[in-house]
Every structure is written in structure tokens, then in C-alpha cells.
Design a protein that fits this description.
The protein is globular and about 55 Å long. It starts with a helix and ends in a 19-residue tail after the last helix. By secondary structure, it is α/β, with parallel strands linked by helices. About 5% of the residues have low confidence. The strands form two sheets. The chain has a five-stranded parallel beta sheet with strand order 2-1-3-4-5, sandwiched between helices. The longest helix has 18 residues. Helix 9 links the parallel strand 8 and strand 9. Helix 2 runs antiparallel to helix 7 and helix 8 packs parallel to helix 10.
């Protein structure tokens, strides 16, 4: 079994631990009404996107997400949250150093001994969610679970959805798919971006992501038989029918369970949170890698952390 398989399977327990941790570190996380920036790189950036949109949706205050290297210098925030699994990513460290003494910063990190801990004003460490894999899975969703729990989302209860996602059969055979497009709305756009990244990283597979409402403004032109459209969260009216007309398969998590258009697959009838649907997409990406004869623990051209020369 690959490291990433075990790490994906551990996410329900990690989410429960994140829900408990959120109560302990509440003072180091954004308070209602604060103007907040959230930064990260790669997967962590997509989790920042999801949290920023979810926090605004919850009415907790203006929240922006940035790739760490693209943080707008001179823009003022009440607090900056940095998400970094390793705590060694160059862009994140550079930003924390630049903001030291100017903006209150909190780093959410897997390694308590990392240099990011010394640069941030406050630290939330999650060694229980750290990973051996290059490809991020459980650290990313656990960081988002922590932040969602602080917003009041019932993360401990949502771990039951994660249990379903780690046990259920995949909604579609990866070996039958030549391309995938992931869609989201609001806070799930970040999840869609992350699902596509997992397919690119683990399986060197052609995968894209778009806001669901924008999909019909061009990207739908690549949909065809043998290709997949996978949507997270709320669906625009008519989208399943429009995708079906292209001949592409369509996967979506509804409140009655997962379903696949052009198939007959479902996974029970309990409510399914989109973050649990991301677990299923992670598993899909790993299965893609295996079906293509690739090792998901050894992705091409990637390292566990991007550390740039001075």
C-alpha cells in the first residue's frame, strides 16, 4: 500500500482531532468581523480559497485568499493565516518574515519544529495530520476542517461523511477516463481546484477545474465520451443535462449520496459534505496513477516542499 493510501484513509480521525483542536486554539484563529487574508502554495492555496469563501458565506467577515508569493504588499489586514504542511516553503517563509511586527500572523503547520513556527506570531501545529507523501491529502483537509470548525461547521459530525468516502467504491472506473474536469461554486471552487491538482500530481493526468457557472462559457467544449465532469456542492440549473448531451460522464455528490450520470452508482443516502467528496476525488487520483502504471508516492518533478535557493 502506498503511503498516500493510508493517509487518505486516516482523514475521518484527523477531522475529529481538528474539531477538538479548534476549541483549544480559538484565540489564535480569526475572530468574527476581522478582515483576514489566508495564504498558501499549491494545495494549501486551494484550502485557503475554500476557507475564505466559506468564512464570508458564514458572515464572519471579509476574507481574501492569495498564493503566498502574490500577497499584495501594503494591503492591510487584521490577521493573516498561513497554511503550510512542512513549514519550510520559501514563499510562505518570506511573507511571514516580511509581515513580522506589522500584521498579526498565525501559521497552521504539520511540523512543530519548522522555521515557520519561529516567524509567525501564533502557531497551530497539527503533527497528527502531517504526511510522508509528497502529494498532500489529509493535512490539507484537516487544516480546512480546523478552520471550518472555528466557523461553527459541524466537523466532528462530518467525519461520518469522511468514513463513507474512504470505504465506498469509486463512482467511475479511472481506466475508462481520458480527461477530467472538476467544478465548484462558492467555497467548493477551491475543492475543485484541489481535485484537479491531485490528478495532475499523482497521475500526470489531464485535469482542469472551473467555477461551475463559468463551465458553459467555453470549457464544456472539451467534454466528450470517455471524459468526466465532477461537480462539488451546489449545481447550476440544467448543468447535468448539458453535460449528458456531450456524452461525458457526470459525477456529483447530492444529499441522497453520490451518483453518476451515464451510470447507476450511488453510495448510500446520508448527507454528504463536499469536503468528503474531495476524499473520493483523492482516491480517484491515486487509482488513476495505479491504472497508468505510476507510483503515487513518487510524483514526477515534485518534492515534498519547495525550498528555493536564496
Amino acid at each position: 500500500m502506498a503511503y498516500v493510501d493510508a493517509e487518505i484513509a486516516s482523514q475521518p480521525d484527523c477531522w475529529r482531532e481538528a474539531a477538538r483542536l479548534a476549541e483549544v486554539v480559538r484565540g489564535d484563529l480569526p475572530r468574527p468581523g476581522e478582515r483576514v487574508a489566508v495564504v498558501g502554495c499549491g494545495t494549501s492555496w486551494f484550502m485557503a480559497m475554500a476557507y475564505a469563501a466559506r468564512r464570508e458565506q458564514a458572515g464572519q467577515g471579509e476574507t481574501d485568499a492569495f498564493q503566498a508569493s502574490e500577497f499584495p504588499a501594503g494591503r492591510r489586514y487584521d490577521r493573516l493565516i498561513a497554511i503550510t504542511r512542512s513549514g519550510t516553503t520559501t514563499e510562505v517563509l518570506d511573507l511571514l518574515a516580511a509581515l513580522r511586527g506589522q500584521t498579526p500572523t498565525t501559521v497552521i503547520v504539520g511540523d512543530p519544529a519548522s522555521p515557520a513556527v519561529d516567524l509567525a506570531a501564533a502557531t497551530v501545529t497539527m503533527p497528527f495530520a502531517d504526511e510522508r507523501s509528497v502529494v498532500q491529502t489529509r493535512f490539507a483537509t484537516t487544516a480546512l476542517a480546523l478552520l471550518r470548525a472555528q466557523l461553527g461547521d459541524p466537523v466532528a459530525a462530518l467525519a461520518a461523511d469522511a468514513e463513507v468516502a474512504v470505504r465506498s467504491p469509486l463512482p467511475i472506473d479511472p481506466a475508462t477516463i481520458e480527461q477530467a474536469t472538476f467544478l465548484g461554486r462558492g467555497w467548493t471552487i477551491g475543492l475543485a481546484q484541489e481535485a484537479a491538482l491531485k490528478c495532475r500530481e499523482a497521475a500526470t493526468f489531464w485535469a482542469e477545474a472551473y467555477p461551475a457557472m463559468d463551465y458553459r462559457h467555453g470549457p464544456i467544449s472539451v467534454a466528450a465520451p470517455g471524459r468526466l465532469v465532477w461537480a462539488f456542492g451546489e449545481l447550476p440549473d440544467g448543468l447535468p443535462e448539458d453535460v449528458a448531451a456531450t456524452g461525458a460522464a457526470f459525477v456529483h455528490s447530492r444529499t441522497h449520496g453520490w451518483r453518476t450520470v451515464l451510470g447507476s452508482w450511488s453510495a448510500g443516502r446520508t448527507p454528504v459534505d463536499p469536503m468528503a467528496d474531495l476524499i473520493l476525488a483523492q482516491r480517484f487520483a491515486v487509482a488513476l496513477a495505479t491504472s497508468r502504471g505510476l507510483d503515487p508516492d513518487a510524483p514526477r518533478h515534485l518534492t515534498r516542499s519547495v525550498v528555493l535557493a536564496p
